[in-house]
DNA sequence: TCCTGTGAATTCGTTCACAGCC
DNA sequence: GGCTGTGAACGAATTCACAGGA
């Protein structure tokens, strides 16, 4: 099983497929073709087939894929059959929202601890968990066997927190702080940056405005350059 | 100015460079080399030079880039010199956190309106804005000239909301709902999916565990496949 | 006949390496 | 001597297109 190296781009789509499959299963579908799954996942069917082929030959020619079986295989591949105790560092606006967000525990990411540096917040109850002081990090990470951490602290504290997390034995970090984190090679790092996403949208939005003025004859010279740059930017 | 088509991958890095540059400026730096900027932005220097070359020849050989000038150019390219009135649809956990998140307005994304379908929430004050009913969407989008919308509603309502946003004249959507949205070609769509990010981390986390057992001699056959799959996944 | 699985072709993105300018 | 700007080389990801099994 899992013979080869799955390309990163492919890995990052597996959760999308998984969600689409779960939805199809809820609608009573037993099998699904690559075209139907592609449609549900918002990609094209060649990608589906190629991506799934990295996991193994789980489809049946002339028929499609067995929905339940595929759910099982993708879950296994993603490591979702085990529980991953996770902690959230920082219980400001975003940290609180993340702590209350049901979507994590739903998929095996049990929030095992919340940390904050602000003594005023320590001891507060939040979604059945009591906020702990950041100085308890090392101890609790060990006790609860936490391997994944979500960083939701202000940018200026993010690197410090990351260093402490790494020292405490965390091996994966999901960073929400608007800062570039340096971590050792063996640590997996992903980032979610809210305002960067808006800035990317702004770029294409501006190009659309430019295109409109072109069509109104304001700056005809720029038409060609603009022509292909204003489409949808992701996920299609 | 802006002669050619900037590759999408490059566009999505510009906001990162911009933030690094602002930080450098705050530390009193006047010029920066591609190597120094690369370091601050967490990428390599060839990428910096190539990306910046798409914007024009803004550097000086033998010296580097003028920090302020580059900030100006990137901001202009990203469309950040204008104000983009933005709305948030859905004022649950996440919507509330986003409404209070300072990072948006900081960069010109003024939150101009909040919408919710729940009558109980309509009229609530949230970060100086009163929550409006979703039925006011069309009117307010026009009045406030909103072009960008942030979707933070439950997955099952996301497509409906997206359809209404598009009908109301929105042209960019940032989707936080864990659902695949279908929008017309002329609409820019980006998504932020919290639990997908964790699932991707889980994949690599699992591979690390597998690697450990390999090193303990449990499953020597899998070593080769695992070897290159457990590194950091993004931003380096 | 239908739909998967996959080599081959293509496109896109990254990195190298160095000419050219300060 | 130092650093940018960029063709050329390379590598990754996507798409095509079809052979082959159900």
Can you characterise this structure?
2 copies of one chain form a homodimer. With 236 residues, chain A is α/β, with parallel strands linked by helices. Chain A folds into 3 domains: 8-78, Winged helix-like DNA-binding domain superfamily/Winged helix DNA-binding domain (Arc Repressor Mutant, subunit A, Orthogonal Bundle); 86-192, 3-Layer(aba) Sandwich (Rossmann fold); 195-227. Helices cover 46% and strands 15% of the residues of chain A. Chain A has 11 helices and 10 strands. The longest helix of chain A is centred in the C-terminal third of the chain and has 22 residues, at 194-215. Chain A is globular and about 60 Å long. Mean pLDDT of chain A is 90; it is low at 219-236. Chain A binds a DNA duplex (22 and 22 nucleotides) through residues 7-10, 33-35, 44-47, 49-50, 52-53, 57, 59-65.
Write the layout of secondary structure elements.
Two copies of one chain form a homodimer.
Chain A: H1 8-11, H2 14-26, E1 31-32, H3 34-41, H4 45-55, E2 59-60, E3 64-66, H5 67-78, E4 86-89, H6 93-100, H7 103-106, E5 111-116, E6 125-126, E7 129-133, H8 137-144, E8 148-151, H9 155-168, E9 172-175, E10 188-191, H10 194-215, H11 223-227
Parallel strand pairs in A: 4-5, 4-8, 5-7, 8-9, 9-10
Antiparallel strand pairs in A: 1-3, 2-3, 6-7
Helix pairs in contact in A: 2-3, 2-5, 3-4, 8-9
Chain A binds a DNA duplex (22 and 22 nucleotides) through helix 1, helix 4 and strand 2.
Distance between the termini of chain A: 30 Å
Number of helices of chain A: 11
Task: Please tell me the overall pLDDT of chain A.
Answer: 90
Approximate helicity band of chain A: 40-55%
**SSE order of chain A, as H and E?**
HHEHHEEHEHHEEEHEHEEHH
The geometry of chain A reads as globular
The oligomeric status of these chains comes to: homodimer
User: What is the CATH fold-level name of the largest domain in chain A?
Assistant: Rossmann fold
Number of DSSP E strands of chain A: 10
Radius of gyration of chain A: 22 Å
Q: How would a crystallographer describe the biggest sheet of chain A? A: 7 strands, mixed
CATH class of the largest domain in chain A: Alpha Beta
Low-confidence stretches of chain A: 219-236
Order of adjacent strands in the largest pleated sheet of chain A: 6-7-5-4-8-9-10
According to CATH, the homologous superfamily of the largest domain in chain A is: NAD(P)-binding Rossmann-like Domain
